[in-house]
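Translate sequence into structure tokens.
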Amino acid sequence: MPGSSHATAREGTLSVPRPFEVGTSLSGNYLAAIVAGAERDTLAASTFFREALRDDPNNQDLIDRAFVAALSNGAMAEAVALAPRVLAHDKGNGLAHLTKGVDLFKNRRYAAARAELAKGGGDRRRDITTTLLTAWTYAGAKDTRKALQTLDALNEDIFVVFRDYHGALIADLGGDKAEAEKRFKSAYAAERNTLRLVDAYARFLASRGQREDAKKLYETFNEVAPGHPIVVAAIAALNEGKPLPPFVRTADDGAAEALYGLGAIGGRQGDELASLIYLRLSLALAPENALAILTLGDVYERMKQPEMAIDLYDSVPKDSPLRVNADIQAALILETLGKSKEATDHLSAVVAANPKNQEALTALGNLQRSRKLYGDAAATYSRVIALLPKDEKSQWLLYYYRGIANERRKDWKAAEADLKKALELNPDQPLVLNYLGYSWVDQGVNVDEAFKMLRRAVDLRQRDGYVVDSLGWAYYRLGRYDDAVRELERAIDLKPSDPVINDHLGDAYWRVGRKLEAQFQWNHARDLNPEPEDLPKILDKIKNGLKDQPEVANATGKTGG
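Result follows.
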């Protein structure tokens, strides 16, 4: 689209440029904005609506659309400027009142913010938003009693944890430690698996000298969700005798926390627009809240806006415990964008700076494995495994990944040992049962045991085409071709575009005399981009078919004609 100006994404160390040109006409910019909005590109939508509005400043529809686009894109100054223009023709617009209220809150005009929020009215979501933020306006004005009275109006069961959590934060900020402890206990009793609540409660306990109790809270959470960076960092700080400051130190932080919580819920419920807006408003009050930034980045990923997600991950504060997670996510996105070298280089730099970070090392190993750098991947997984303090069930995945890397680099002895170790840690894991069972069948060894493993894997993963294919191939290797056809046809229904499954079904069809269908499956396998080492075999079968006497595995695990 021709135009006179040029817009790009924010320049950052990881930023992926997204140039686009604004148009010279109202209609061009308007249509471009509509398309961008449909594609969930908030940066482009905000830019194009702003340009369109310049040409038609009194258009109410444009004002409304530009306001929402600016807000969802985090252009807060623009959204705040547009809010009164929205209210000029829609006095009950709750979102415009909320935006004005947050801006007034940020400027510590608490009474004015409260009045603005009260004008929003509306549905249940607005009620809880208004109540929480109103309570925090009283907290900002140092009226803790009134703040808690306001919160206590949230007496529906669905709001109890929100009420008690924010009540505890407000009481703590206001210096009423006894009230804060009572409300923290109530919230924690109702919900023990919410990171933010656990973290706030533990920090409160630590501030009162109850460091062992705080540590116990983190360790209990760690059993449910092992290795979360915030928890790991907090436990390390407690062990080293370092202080754990509260993450809500001001009323701004508290209001931002309320908006963050509502935004996180919206994201989990699939309401991306509401989630975007709440998180953007939260970050307007607490711009360095790493958890809110990561949550917003995750929303953009689910909206298929990877460049925006990368920009957000790159904005996580360097000293945050979540920075490594942000870098990992950015690298994974670069990989999905086809920037494999940049992704691997970036993760390698992260690992160099954090050589004992198991998550970063695992992510690097996964990228190396996806790029078929199997030797590098196996070495990286070995570094992770060397850091593990003891055998735990959850570690099966590392041995499984290393087993795959070793098998692909033709070191079957090491691969088999890894896969057996993975099964030792997690005996009923269908992925491992499938991989080891398939490998044994393909080699013609341990066939009876492999067959049992594959049957069990299929029982556990009946809708997994790869697992069903393995069972079908086991039947084929045993010479039970009719059974093989049955299972492989099921596998094709589940994974019609996999070249290996199509190749296997072609072989089975040939053995039962369905040679025309076999040719079709092999041709299909050829066209589905098979592995380079498999292609010559497929082409030979297309040309010459299969030998009359296949090698069949017998019950002893040996093979014979």
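Note: The CA atoms of residues 476 and 484 lie 5 Å apart.
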